[in-house]
Amino acid sequence: MNSELASIIESLIFTAESALSTDRICELLNEFEREDIKAALKDTVAYYHGRGGGFELVEVAGGWQFRTRPAFHSYITRHIKTRIAKFSQSALETLAIVAYRQPITRAEVEHLRGVDCGGVLKSLLEKHLVRILGKKDIPGRPLIYGTSKEFLEIFGLKDLKSLPTLREIQALDAVPQYERQEELQLEPEKAIPTESDLPFV
To answer: The pTM is what?
Structure first.
């Protein structure tokens, strides 16, 4: 292991405002070989994992970021008293629809939810959880929406493929219900777009 290279990479990731991709690290460290950088990243992940300390190096939102271990969340919030972001039920429903059905138009979201979603979409845009991907090539050229890189960071997802499946979500429902509302079909045959398909900034 190249300890100097690993230390340089640590310092870059530590000072980055958001997750730093492998491509960006390679671009910044063009005097090193890409394979050496990838090996140093792998070794650094293993080091922090084996160390068992208070934080670790994880791959999230298509990049690398130091994060505190989830097991210590309750202790950390005592110290920093973070104001936990709260979402309304309508915002969570809308965000879930956008996440699983993107790219999607406002009309399509409203069709699935059965109510107007203009205000909710505007709020999600302001929070940088949803972004405008472009316009759909149909009459009226409506805007199409998708999730942002910030969405992946906030929810700790490596990429969109890391979203839980409908089966995994249903497995969380441990209490049997005698009357179930019809489940929203998420069209499993439709492939979830990968990060490379989305024009993240």
So the answer is: 0.52
